[in-house]
Amino acid sequence: MTTDATVKARNAASLGRVRRSAAVDATAVVIILAAAALLYVLFPGSLALFTRMVAIMMLALSLDLVTGFAGIATLGHAALFGAGAYAAGILASKFGFTDPFAMLGVGAVAGALAGIVSSVVILRGRGLGQLVLSIAIVQLAHEAANKLSAWTGGSDGLSGIAPAPIFGLYRFDLWGRTAFILAVALLVVVFVLLRVIIRSPFGMLCRGIKQDPVRVRAMGAPVYGTLVKLYAIAGAVAGLGGALSAVATKVVGLDSLSFTLSAEALVMLVLGGVGKLFGALIGTFVFIWFEHLVAAINPFHWLTIVGVMLIVVVLFEPRGLTGAAEALWTRARGGRR
Fold this sequence. Notes:
By secondary structure, the protein is mainly α. It has helices at residues 2-42, 47-68, 78-93, 100-122, 128-147, 149-152, 177-199, 201-211, 213-218, 223-249, 259-272, 278-297, 302-316, 320-336. Helix 1 (2-42) packs antiparallel against helix 7, helix 11 crosses helix 12 (278-297) and helix 12 (278-297) packs antiparallel against helix 13 (302-316). Its main location: membrane. GO terms for molecular function: branched-chain amino acid transmembrane transporter activity.
């Protein structure tokens, strides 16, 4: 009887956790959709900017997977984003396959392959060594894209990308409405899938590796293989973001493979909160929107202002904006009680 009662209690607790997680996921999706609807209505002339934000959000989500949940230090994640962007662009401009979903799919596959190749190199190092290796990878990718100008357009960029209408009905208009709606739909799907992955046994194993890889290895779990798989998933997400950028902007430049983009993605992640997924979305939105506003107000010193903002956030709230929001929510609930 005691055993049956224990099993029932465990099942009830497990069911409760599943329901809470589902409620959190549903709330996050509602917030994303509500924010997208407000932006669509209030800022119809800035939809191209918001679509760009969503593409970078996928890069930040991908980075959060490997850094926030597995503890892999990297400053070369733009190589995965750029791989997806160039793969989608080359598919359309060189081979004439302009279906947007085909471009997105090829971009995700290219990003996953780039992630696997990158992980084989980066995982050989530890700590600072991983950072150096990741920087070398993104610099090599940047130089390769520059030299292969016949395929990539080199420093002039890859142009001639003309995605076909979605389902043959919805054209990619000048205002960016179609691209924005597609971007939001992709973001919701990717976000929910990543939430499921991090709660799965595979995701828990990745968290365990971040905490103590030696103990996980001693338990017989494949540490290296698990991290390579995680990097492949992260690469697919980043590649999808790159492909989305190619579809929306119809051009791919060397900046999609730059060290600067890698560093900015890490800054966005730290700003929003590492290891939270939702923090990657908030950090990306705040960083790009703030950058856009400040650059318009002061085009000569906007980087200084952005730098001051980042210093303030890191010093006073190391957990990022989502950490600050969680702390305020906890205090508010405690005050009510």
